[in-house]
Amino acid sequence: MSVLISDAFALAPGGIPLNTPVFGWSSIVPARAVIAASSAADGFPAANLANPSTAQRWVAGAAGSPPADAFLTITVDPEFSDPIDYLAIAVHNLGTGQNTVSVESSDLGSPVVWDELVEEAIPADDEPIVFRFAPQSLAALRLRIQPSPLDEPTTPFVAVLYAGKLLVLPRGTHTDHIPINRATTARVLSGRSETGNFLGRFVLAEERGTTFALQHLEPAFYDQVMAPFIDAARETPFFFAWQPQKRPRDVGYCWMTNDPQPTDQFGIARKAISLQMGGVAV
After folding, report:
1. Which domain holds residue 16?
2. Whole-angstrom Cα distance, residue 93 to residue 98?
3. Which of 5, 24, 42, 155 has its CA 20 to 30 A from that of 241?
């Protein structure tokens, strides 16, 4: 379970396709928002989530310490009124910890009231998660992480958090595709004795990589929507789901491994492009 779509949005998407590829690259974090947490371990503040690096993390305060829920709150710049429709996280242990997660919003009135945007769920694993909801202007939103029910609870951590407006493609790929979460390759060391006996194999490292090909893109759509993403993706990682509704677990936190160049499709006034991507191996 890696794409969690709000029930209200799924039932009435307002003409927005729910199963075409999406890229979560545009984020209000950190330029137009402030991240705060209800608790944080020493040296692992919520501010670490604003860095796309997976090496830096927010870690909740010690398990069992108040408050019971580990809230991550994003307060939006009052001057920012553009609609947003997703919150995404990568490199976390919320599946391992069996933590119930949800996304809530508030208008920061008095008293402050939080309304549920994406319903509660327990992640099936520690893969990246994209919480998707209807596009709307928000004063604040938060990721709510409820305590682990395990007898030996884990302390929640998250390395990356994005929130903003998804890039939604009008159609999917025209060819076979290996989902990024299935495209794992490993560097393995095999051990043998001097007499040729098999002694075992050791995985030294794992990485992910796939290619996503697109055709028949309207030139105006490419120039106005795709081109800014391609430019940003040369430096900044992004979230990617190729069939969010039908294949919700096929999600990755990715980066470009090529320098994508659009081609003009002869005779049909459309553009094509091939994206080669690497991704975090959980």
Report:
1. 3-168
2. 8
3. 155
Residues 146 and 255 grouped into a single domain: no
Considering the domain architecture, whether residues 55 and 148 belong to the same structural domain is answered as yes
pLDDT over 70 for what percent of the chain? 93
What does the pLDDT read at residue 189? Answer: 66
CA atoms within 13 A on the CB side of 75: 10
153, pLDDT greater than 70: yes
Q: How far is 279 from 126, CA to CA, in rounded Å? A: 14
Among 23-37, 43-57, 73-87, 196-210, name the one with the lowest average pLDDT.
Answer: 196-210
Kindly state whether residues 37 and 123 are assigned to the same domain: yes
Q: What is the band of 1 on the pLDDT scale with cuts at 50, 70, 90? A: low
Per-residue pLDDT at 213 exceeds 70: yes
Report which of 8, 11, 22 is spatially closest to residue 239, judged by C-alpha positions: 22
In order, the DSSP letters of 58-124 are EEPSSTTPSSSSEEEEEEEPTT----EEEEEEEEE-TTTTT--EEEEEE---SS---EEEEEEE--S
For residues 57 and 157, the answer to whether their CB atoms sit within 8 Å is: yes
Nearest CA-CA partner of 99 in 118, 123, 119: 123
Closest CA to 56 of 96, 91, 93: 91
Q: In what order do the strands lie in the sheet with 84-92?
A: 3-5, 129-136, 84-92, 157-164, 58-59
Residue 11's contacts (CB-CB under 8 Å, 6 or more residues apart) are none
